[in-house]
Design goal:
The chain has 399 residues and is of the alpha+beta class. It has 13 helices and 16 strands.
Length: 399
């Protein structure tokens, strides 16, 4: 990573390409072919040749893959000097990311764009969750903005009312045996999920009644988990629903975990939306309008928002036309831009460029000192944000 960060090109000759796992490689190659056509219009001979050579090398490398790798793929390619100016050679660096790439990105610049990859390499604190009562238990994890239920267990323990014909003492003895066997079974599941399959830095336990306390005092859990119990909470439910309740109850304990930050942001947005004269906006048009007027404080955007910002600049007079479109409409929109006469001089000669819409939002936010928060689409709050179009803003004031 440090080696790549030191690489510098002459002009905008270095390609950074991030491919999400769900992105078909033939679509990426088709987009690079379009970039190749656009690069042929670059005025500088050396820059034009270097960019076109880098695009060819990148497309050739992608053709070696039958499918996109599990976590996606990151490629850095471009002309780098080997012995001073004029000694440039095309180098290609291929990276298999440690986590899934969330957004498709193609950039051509004088340096490689490494921020997304650096964020993936940051260590995320993983917290284990256990919700238990005498009838069921569930194990979950929170890692960054990801909440996942990893296991569920039912007890099979008899109810407190004994069957006819059994003495009270014998019934209670049998029930205690069943509970002990259940606790051992829960402990095996928890140890496997949070020690063998995952590595957690803390454990939070919850559930209704005293079952959770009996379970913890009985030392059924592996000692490595017992010593990192962060908190124990009373909840109304156990199992899967209990885990969700536990996440809310443990907000203070989990305040440095990304998921809690996202829940607070989206819930604040929902409150503002449901308030008359609330300080909130949503839809691409309204959020951009708020950014341009300086009224946006924080922009919320879904991590899998598949949009592009496109800009067409007239080659003759410099007139600029900009649009924001869903990525699936990219080809049609580019053809429309290229076939529409310039409003200023009537020319049909354009240079068309595009960038990922989330990155464009960040550029616009920097101008007005607003923040951009990318919200995970895997949480309930992320799903709610998607129902508002995947883009929203918390406002400083109403325009």
């Amino acid at each position: 990573m440090s080696e790549l960060s030191e690489k510098k090109g002459r002009g905008t000759e270095l390609i950074s390409l991030y491919i999400p796992p769900k992105k078909a490689l033939h679509e990426v190659i088709a987009a690079l072919r379009d970039e190749y056509g656009t690069a042929s219009n670059i005025k500088s001979d050396s820059t034009r040749n270097h960019v076109m050579d880098a695009l060819v090398k990148t497309m050739q490398r992608l053709k070696l893959y039958k499918a996109t790798p599990e976590n996606g793929l990151v490629i850095f390619c471009g002309a780098l000097p080997t012995n001073g100016p004029g000694s440039e050679t095309i180098f290609l660096y291929e990276v298999f990311p440690p986590k899934p790439v969330q957004t498709y990105l193609y950039r051509c610049d004088d340096h490689f764009h490494l921020d997304i990859l650096k964020d993936m390499l940051k260590e995320e604190k993983t917290i284990g969750l256990l919700s238990i009562d005498a009838t069921e238990a569930a194990v979950g994890i929170i890692a960054g903005s990801r909440f996942e239920v990893v296991d569920e267990i039912t007890s099979g323990v008899s109810g407190k009312h004994r069957a006819g014909g059994q003495s009270a003492r014998r019934f209670e003895r049998l029930r205690e045996m069943e509970l002990t066997e259940y606790y051992h079974r829960v402990a095996r599941h928890v140890n496997k999920a949070l020690l063998e399959e995952k590595t957690v830095q803390g454990l939070i336990v919850g559930g209704p009644g005293g079952t959770k306390d009996t379970f913890l005092k009985g030392e059924f859990l592996d000692y490595r988990l017992r010593r990192i119990v962060l908190a124990v909470f009373d909840t109304s439910y156990a199992g899967r629903e209990g885990l969700r309740e536990l996440v809310d109850k443990a907000a203070d304990v989990l305040q440095d975990v990304r998921l809690i930050e996202e829940k607070k942001l989206v819930n604040r947005f929902l409150r503002e939306v449901n308030t008359s004269n609330g300080l909130a906006a949503y839809s691409v048009k309204d959020v951009l309008d708020a950014l341009q007027k300086g009224s946006a404080e924080t922009v919320l955007v879904s991590e899998d928002l598949e949009w592009l910002h496109m800009k067409a600049v007239c080659s003759k007079c410099g007139f600029t036309r900009e649009v924001n479109v869903p990525r699936v409409n990219y080809i049609q929109e580019k053809q429309r831009l290229l076939s529409t006469p310039c409003d200023n001089c009537g020319s049909l000669e354009y240079e068309v460029s595009e960038m990922d819409f989330i990155e464009y939002l960040e550029d616009q936010a920097n101008i007005s000192s607003a923040n951009v928060e990318v919200i995970s689409s895997r949480s309930e709050e992320g799903a709610m944000l998607k129902s508002f179009g995947g883009v929203a803003a918390l406002l400083r004031y109403k325009v």
